[in-house]
Amino acid sequence: MVNKVYASAAEALDGLLVDGMTVMAGGFGLCGIPELCIAAMHDKGVRDLTVISNNCGVDDFGLGILLQARQIKKMVSSYVGENKEFERQYLNGELDLEFNPQGTLAERIRAGGAGIPGFYTKTGVGTLVAEGKEHKDFDGETYILERGLTADLAIVKAWKGDTDGNLVFRKTARNFNPEMATAARVTVVEVEELVEVGELDPDGIHTPGIFVHRIVQGAHEKRIEKRTLRED
Amino acid sequence: MPWTREQMAARAAEELEDGFYVNLGIGIPTLVANYIPADKDVTLQSENGMLGMGPFPTEAEVDPDLINAGKQTITQIKRSSYFSSADSFAMIRGGHIDLSILGAMEVAENGDIANWMIPGKMVKGMGGAMDLVAGVKRVVVVMDHTNKAGEPKLLKRCTLPLTGTGVVDRIVTNLGVLDVVEGGLKIVECAPEVREADIRAATEAAIV
């Protein structure tokens, strides 16, 4: 029996971290981020990372802590506002940045995981994003070629998982996590609740275990970036 | 009297039709949700992976796993569904969303829009804006007619990096409502006590 279950994020990442590697990290803002794996990567000190993630955390939480420690060389993202350290490093030329439209980023990851090396999209035609990319007309409309994306490692956050790696996400914490789980050579998942095989409803599984190589259960802070309340 | 932010949002809400699936951008467009007419059944999409967005939560309802695309805490409603980012943008890019209401820094007379970057100044990123303007059936922009210095933001050509080309259908500003048509912009409505001449004077784009 292959064992996918690890006792801690640090152990789950053992032997996987190499300086200069490319890592996909799930999450939207601070929602659904693999916070335990990020903290473990910080502690292990792996450097010169290329990180593919929609955002880059905040100054002291999420991917922001890897930025603070200068462990990130390049970000591939769609939106990096709300992070002063990011802006500072980028404007000083200390950090490389590739902006992707959010849907293009999601589809590049989906394509990468599905064995599709490229696809055409209307998104970004006529903008900076289209520069240097192949243009092609289909049915009278112009599209650009975008490449599929893969990575050495994906770090993913799910709500529940079983010992085989079958995953269930919760609400908007799903976001980029399912696609990223498919697109890396090794996928490490952290869950809030780990159950035995057979306990999850097979019809309700969002990511099948074939995409998951290592899984760890842990306590998550789940910090809220913008607590917004209604007045009743 | 030019419209206030709230009045602009209320005017933009008149663009909603019964049965529409709608994506609202950050800023004034978010306020549009407060003015959805009671007789119109509208479903709000949030590009981080939700259809059927509810109001902001009470303290007891706050859930860190439930936010909108502006990262604010929100709630679910009876019809809500959740999905991944790739599925979300399949809805957007695939033309399944009826209307996108979003903000802009500049709009040009040919429907070009710039709203994601000020070179050397603002490094934030385009988020989902490029996908929305490229894929959604109808694009309505809500923005101030001029900048803080009083200079026009409706231009012959955008000066800032573009978000999309020839994609804007209608613009709601504090002065009125304009449509992008052949040859330029057409005034379709003026805010109370605002004359067409006032709009022309505050607009660089050709008005036809």
TrEMBL record, chain A:
InterPro entries: 3-oxoacid_CoA-transf_A, CoA_trans_fam_I, CoA_transf_BS, NagB/RpiA_transferase-like. It comes from the Bacteria. The keyword Transferase applies. GO terms for molecular function: CoA-transferase activity. Keywords: Transferase. PROSITE patterns: COA_TRANSF_1. Belongs to the 3-oxoacid CoA-transferase subunit A family. NCBIfam families: pcaI_scoA_fam. This is 3-oxoacid CoA-transferase subunit A. It comes from Rhodothalassium salexigens DSM 2132. The lineage of its organism: Bacteria, Pseudomonadati, Pseudomonadota, Alphaproteobacteria, Rhodothalassiales.
UniProtKB/TrEMBL annotation, chain B:
InterPro entries: 3-oxoacid_CoA-transf_B, CoA_trans_fam_I, NagB/RpiA_transferase-like. The keyword Transferase applies. The keyword Signal does not apply. GO terms for molecular function: CoA-transferase activity. Signal peptide: none annotated. Keywords: Transferase. Belongs to the 3-oxoacid CoA-transferase subunit B family. PANTHER family: KETOACID-COENZYME A TRANSFERASE, SUCCINYL-COA:3-KETOACID COENZYME A TRANSFERASE SUBUNIT B-RELATED. This is 3-oxoacid CoA-transferase subunit B. It comes from Rhodothalassium salexigens DSM 2132.
